[in-house]
Amino acid sequence: MPDDLNIPDRVLVAGLGASTRSLEVRLRMPDDLNIPDRVLVAGLGASGVAVVKLLVSQGKKVTATDIKQEGELSGALKELEATPFTGRFGGHVRKDFLDHELIVISPGIASDQPFLQEARQNGARVIGEIELASRFIEEPIIAITGTNGKTTTTTLLGRLFNAASRDVFVGGNIGEPLVNYVLSGRKADLLIVEISSFQLETIETFRPTTFADYIAAKMRIFENQTHDDEALVSAEIKTTGAVRARRYSFSTRSMLEEGAFLREGLLCVRLADKEFSYRRDLSPLVGVHNSENLLSALLTAHLYGIDREVIEKTLHDFRGLAHRVELVRQIRGVKFYNDSKATNVDATRKALESMDGNVILIAGGKDKGGSYAIIVPLADRIKALVVIGEARKKIEAELGPYVPTYGEKDLEGAVERAQSVAKKGDTVLFSPMCSSFDMFENYKTRGNAFRHIVEAL
Hints:
The protein is globular and about 65 Å long. By secondary structure, it is of the alpha/beta class. It has helices at 46-57, 74-79, 94-98, 114-121, 129-134, 150-163, 178-184, 197-200, 288-303, 308-317, 345-353, 392-399, 411-421, 443-455, and strands at 11-14, 38-42, 61-65, 86-88, 102-105, 125-128, 141-144, 168-172, 190-194, 210-212, 230-234, 246-251, 259-263, 266-271, 274-279, 326-331, 334-338, 359-364, 382-388, 405-407, 427-430. The chain folds into 3 domains: 11-129, NAD(P)-binding Rossmann-like Domain (Rossmann fold, 3-Layer(aba) Sandwich), CATH 3.40.50; 141-317, Mur-like, catalytic domain (UDP-N-acetylmuramoyl-L-alanine:D-glutamate ligase), CATH 3.40.1190.10; 326-455, Protein-Tyrosine Phosphatase, Chain A, CATH 3.90.190.
């Protein structure tokens, strides 16, 4: 166990979820981890299940807590049938948090929750699954964070390295939790990991080798890097504080002496005395934000020596991700795009910027508390706005004065309204700007519903 982790004998683990492979090897705990005998794990999601398994494999006594009732956690509990632990279901108990010196939280639990703040004041250490897993990993890590596009960039990088016959693990905030990699006993060439803002709040020593798709609020991803590492940062972002790693930039607005940039329809990478260029239209991904994603991925690929031929083929073949400005169908000259993953206003803004105009925008869902006003400067691109869900009245109040607006009671009605307004050459864009939880289980269920409605038109 690493000496600097100072894990007490009792730990709370937050989050037990999806399937986790059974432990194939007996792991040796790093000498500097200092995990106490008792640990609390908070939250029963995919990473929580894996964390419980890892800690129990190290001989720790684990208590796992979740706000869901036992019946709602059947999948997680089935995964843990052979793993001895104590479960607390149907809500968190204050005493559990105060009785443990180490608490491991899942990505979905905000680190500023009152019960966690009180535990810290009581002397407990609160870390996340990413921090715990990283202590067992010696392989290089490429970490990606940001507001929009991190999943696309992570997935594209995985495809690039796989196409180059590199053995890579792709996971983190998408797909497999990082702890699953530890449990597998696998030794990949490198790891490509998506990191959320919540996960970054609880790092202590987590150190990526390379960072892409940076946003200013996520400065902690640089915190533990050294001069041997690389930091890939948008040239349009002003970093505050010291960045010890070697910095490379990417930009869609200006040419760079070193880094990646967009020039006259070309994606360019310039490193030392060499320059590589790729046609932007080689990739089917649309929009300025996807140009940024492509540039950061290409820059990383060249830093790791991936051949040009491999990069070109992967760019051409990578069709993007479901529910992210995904072309569903074209009907009588009208294109229908599914952008259900746009759960915030900025994501919808970027989707609109990728369109030429004459957009019938379908938006709405559960309001997340922000303003929709940043869409106003793009009002000339919106032919009509169709609003649904709990946020319908708020969106209509803020955007209705600038674009013709229609309110509908459900998604099916919204699609039918959009089709009635659209003419040949127009675009119907389903980009909600809101979470899905007022009408759907998640953004995927919402996006699939939109697909099915459009396919039935």
